[in-house]
Amino acid sequence: MTESIVSLLVSPSKLERDKGILLFEELIKSEDEKVVLVEQMLDDLVLKTECTWEEKHGFLLGKKSLVGLKKIRKDDQFVEHCQVSAVKYLQDEEVRVRGAAENDGAVKEKEEVGKLFDKLAGITPRDAAQVFHDTAGWKNLETSMKCLQHMVEGCGKGFESEFSAELFNLLITCLDHTNRFVRETGYYVCATLVSACSGQNTEDNPLITQDAMNVDEIAAEALDEDLYSPILIFGNKLSIHLAKGLSDNWSQVRLASTTATRVFLLSLTPEQRKQFYPILLPRLCLNRYYLAEGVRLYSQRTWSEVVGAEGCTLVKDFLKEVVEYYIEATQADNHAVREAACQCIAELAKKINLEALQPYVQHLLRTLIECFKDDSWPVRDMACVAAGSFVCCYPEESKTGLDILLPLFWSNIADPISSVRQGAAIALANTIRAYGSEILPDIITKLETGLENLTSQPVESEKYGDLDTSPANFSVAKRIRDNDVELHEDQQMYSCGSLAPKMGRGGGGGCTDSKFRKVSEPWELADGCVHLVGEIATIKECEEELDKLLSAVARVQEHKHYVNHLHLFQTVCVRFAGIAKAVNKKILKPHLEEFFDIIFYSLESENGLAEYAAEDCLNTLSTVLGPNILRGRIENYNPSYLSKLDNIREPMDGPGRPFGSRKPCGVLSTSPSRPFSDGDMMVGMESGGGGASSPRSIPGSGRSYQAPLGGTPT
User: Considering the entire predicted model, what is its pTM?
Assistant: First the structure.
């Protein structure tokens, strides 16, 4: 049995190593004499001249399992031997060995802290270009930092006496390190240190709760009284470096810094937090919309735990710092940061008191106009949506920029990216809500022209001159030419993560730079116009114009000579279903027959998305009008369509969907990649009493609506 346990511990397979640990721990609990034999066999493994990493790793795993038993028996010699072995293997070439050593290195936590400090402080970093690039680990330094983290966890509250300026300066050096793995580990160590030192109750200490004094003054007086908190002593400098981590280009570093920030803020009283809010609050607020899901969800939860229902009040109190940081973030090299900044600016227009935000409106609008020129289409998309939100909430202040904004909105209506066209339609609809009859006639004229220009659509697009028309995923516009084998043979390989931070806002590489932009085609403009008609249908004041627009939309079925006509028909089906739910039946019924041909043409197509859109449209019409009324109208128009209607699969989505079917991925606005529906929840914020919206959504009604920042994300 002893040999089988050892063989499992040194196995290259993790599953077998885990099994070996379980068997060895069961043997230890039984206090079997064979434990000594296993221990001796493990010692013999590492005494050999040529020792494999599996043997070193198994040795460390076995020693770690024995620690509890040896401590009970007060075997100090074993603990010292285990510590020496752990320090030895902290510099091993194999990362799994170093990982096991860092855990064993915390056996005598407090006694060995000073030695590890000396080891870390003695590391002399060389030029990064000569050692590792930013996507590789920093070997011993990173591992030693993790070992320190385990030591702090082992010491717990007892480590507070070891928290010195020397240790803090060492941590700051790691937080400023050129390697992202070292920075990431450094922030996790900070979180552990703060957690270990936050047990002291400072609530009743008058030296700490004086708002008029800065942290250094608080620390000085607290030291005189020998009653101090290391968190407050170093809080000012720590918050500066936490802010840098919250703005780091690498998502893993952002997540680690957010973890440390949460622990740091929750360790303080609400009054003590206020001195750190000017630098931390804006960055934490922006990260609720960051592209990386882990950062976004953790930041939302952190926001909820730290500010609770006071988010709106706090953002308003520190509005100057928030606005300045959002504007700064729109200049970042990382396109994901620029996109999140535009989303946050749109949120300000919707959530913050109008009078409080008014002094910043012009500056924010100029920033959004500048973002329209961005080479990354998600940034252009969100800049458009945010600008429309500002126009709706601040019509008088936005009038001066209207001559610039309207052409930009129309440019996005014809953008090659479908979701950009949808965003532009929402922005123009909000502009109509703001200015009504002042701009409506001009918009109606351009709408009709855009739909009529479909006759000029070429039969075929030029090879390599167009983008793939499939739904764009994760901000990547895929070229049709990407299927050319020659483009993928004998080429230099790159890490996707290493390229992402190098994507400048003015181009210079990456999957969303200016090389992927092209002149739009007439069908794309018509597609954007259909989206706009769908948005106009939700504006009650536009009901008279809607009658003429619906006929213009229905006429797109006359043009099927181009490759992407089914994509346009899909949009028509999706939008007509939305229009049916939004408008009065008196407006809908006169145009019903005009859309039957395009719906059933899409239903019979071999395009899955168009087929589903047509099927869903029929389901919606059946719900709005009634199944029998719809069937009768179809029978009167074209009896042959009844057989196709009867072939629609049985409902799968529950009551109210008589022709329901399974939904495929990527269906326009119903796709998760484009959550513009009014029923979605605003992530990380309470939505108040009205309809909620997603992070990409914008206010759909007048200026009176105000919702608080804060609350639990759902």
Answer: 0.69
